[in-house]
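haha ok so turns out i had the wrong file open the whole time. this is the CORRECT one, sorry everyone. sequence first:
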Amino acid sequence: MNGLCEECGADSDCKAGFKCEVQTGGGNRCVPAAECYSNRDCSGGKVCQSGSCVACASDDACGPNMMCNNGACQPKAECSVDDDCRAGSNCIEGRCVAVGPICPQDPIRFAFNEYSLSTQARTSLNGLADCLRQKAGNAAVTLEGHCDERGTEEYNMTLGEKRAVAVKKYLSNLGIDNGRLRTVSYGKERPAAYGSNEDAWAANRRVEFTVAR
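then structure:
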């Protein structure tokens, strides 16, 4: 090249894993090609330093939101206990993971203008109480009372509260701590079904449940 004998003129003149590089003192030489150019080129949690993938020595070497653990980069722990996560998520191996509802419960239905519990409702609540004792720890339970569209707003707010309280008393009698049970009435404000017919009215006379850690 240019009247001089060089080891290479281009990367293609070098064997695999080497590249052609101009030397400081002059001349071209085949030198080992860089193993990496950024941390993304490395695997196994290693970091890229001076073209080589090496074990990390500090969190700073791993980059934002990452930590160095025993020489390998890994995501920083998002949580250590379930309380570090928002409702509906649990802390699993340092990450907040969405989980299904605790003790899912179908709404309890009521007859027109009634807040007494049917035999079917009591059977269903027996199952909920068992789940709350066995799987839900000290999870809080919100009991939402609802009504159909008939009647005044004030009357239905009162009836919705009576329905929620009836469920609360029954669960309390089954041994569920009163402090875990919260009642709220929405009256006829939040219908589950729309329409002025028996099917819609029956669907709207209910108590719904929210169980949260």
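The first helix runs from residue 59 to 62.
again sry for the mixup
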